[in-house]
Design a protein that fits this description.
Elements (H helix, E strand, L loop, with lengths): L10 H16 L7 H21 L13 H4 L4 H10 L6 H21 L5 H8 L6 H42 L14 H43 L6 H16 L1 H4 L12 H8 L21 H5 L5 H7 L13 H29 L11 H23 L14
Length: 405
């Protein structure tokens, strides 16, 4: 773990190192080694800075919107809160308050991701139930969820171990065909289930730890108030001035410590963000978000300006067969959004004109003058035809052709 500096590690490696330190301190009882605790806190703070810089999480997302590879980073404030509680300092109240702030930050993120159970949300919104029966029922339900999460994680671990042993046995008994050496197991859903269960277990532990820290803060505040009332003379003027300076420094640097709520300059280039995640680049490196078209050709001509037709043709000798992009994805999206806004504004304007002008049409219901003239001519023609039919009844012209006519 001590081979590389914290600043040089990518986010996945840095999180894995911090997680190992957290397991070592919380489960193995290595909290007495303050150097290990300090390194864990430093690694987790760097993880918070990188997560905020990369903008992995948003307030309008849910757990279904987060990818499986990014779910584990929700545990960073919980790990930092537990490790901060293990820090040994003279001002214990300060340590307790910092740990509580990180745990509350973890709760807020889990609540926005819809990961906190409903009974815990109701209890937190009501400020805690005063009834002993309600508190006991809440603790029992939390304990059952914790046991269920632990058994589920154990089951997933045993399932992975059995699958690994069976794959090794089948690999030894069956020859591997060409092209099948690097085929990975399809365990994405299992990994997502494991991380969601780990987050559920962390929520249960965080609620218990937060209650203990609140009680400890109340006890320490009561002891401090009693000492001040009794007129304890052990505190000199220098000690009080030093504590006042530390309190002022804490309030002054509070915005820098809470990295999740600190507005930072986001990374808008998806390619550069992927490079930072995989360790090929650092978040502090300078980069260009725009994708400029690549010009192929001799370096002497590409670097300088093309002044003649001969130089322009020489620079285009080694051009690719496909058309190069002229704008980045972000610029194309903004341009398309502008076109859609103009199209919607035009449709809205046309709709308003249609809705406001339909009743203003001054159409005449009666016939026009030309239609009146046509009707008079038709009536005269019909009367003349009727008169002719009266003078010439039907079959009158055929009477001479009949024998009886």
């Amino acid at each position: 773990m001590g081979g590389c500096k914290v600043e040089d590690l990518p986010l996945p490696a840095l999180f894995e190192q911090a997680r190992k330190i957290h397991l070592l301190v919380t489960e193995s009882g290595a909290s007495s080694d303050q150097e290990v605790v300090r390194k864990g806190c430093e690694a987790l703070e760097k993880c918070e800075e990188m997560i905020s810089k990369l903008g992995l999480f948003s307030s309008n997302e849910t757990k279904d919107d987060i990818s499986t590879t990014n779910l584990k980073y929700l545990l960073v404030p919980f790990y930092l809160g537990e490790l901060t509680e293990k820090v040994a300092e003279d001002d214990r109240i300060h340590v307790v308050k910092v740990s509580q702030a990180k745990l509350k930050e973890f709760f807020s993120f889990c609540e926005s991701m819809e990961l906190v159970p409903e009974e815990e949300l109701e209890a937190s919104t009501q400020g805690g139930s005063n009834s002993v029966t309600d508190r006991r029922a809440l603790k029992i339900a939390r304990f059952k969820r914790q046991r269920a999460a632990e058994s589920k994680l154990l089951e997933i671990k045993e399932r992975k171990e059995r699958r690994g042993r069976s794959s090794k046995a089948s690999a030894l008994s069956t020859p591997v065909e060409a092209g099948e050496e690097d085929v990975p197991d399809d365990d994405g859903e299992e990994e997502r289930e494991a991380w969601l269960t780990t987050i559920s277990l962390a929520i249960c532990k965080a609620f218990d730890l937060l209650e203990l820290l609140k009680k400890e803060e109340e006890m320490l505040s009561a002891m401090k108030e009693r000492q001040s009332k009794e007129g304890d003379k052990e505190f000199s003027r220098d000690v009080l001035d030093d504590r006042a300076k530390r309190a002022e420094a804490w309030h002054r640097d509070a915005a820098a410590r809470v990295q999740y709520t600190k507005p930072v300059q986001p990374i808008t280039c998806a390619t550069f963000a992927q490079d930072v995640l995989e360790g090929r680049a650092k978040a502090s490196d300078a980069h260009e978000h725009k994708q400029q078209p690549i010009i192929f050709g001799p370096a002497s001509l590409v670097g300088g300006g093309l002044t003649s037709e001969r130089e322009r043709m020489a620079a285009q000798v080694f051009q690719p067969s496909y058309r190069l992009p002229t704008m980045s994805i972000e610029e194309a999206g903004l341009k398309e959004m502008d076109m859609m806004n103009k199209w919607q504004e035009r449709n809205l304007k046309l709709m308003e004109e249609a809705n406001s002008a339909w009743h203003k049409d001054s159409r005449k219901i009666g016939p026009s003058e030309e239609e009146d003239e046509d009707d008079d001519a038709a009536q005269e023609k019909a009367r003349a035809f009727d008169d002719w039919k009266d003078d010439n009844p039907r079959g009158a012209g055929n009477k001479k052709l009949t024998p009886t006519g």
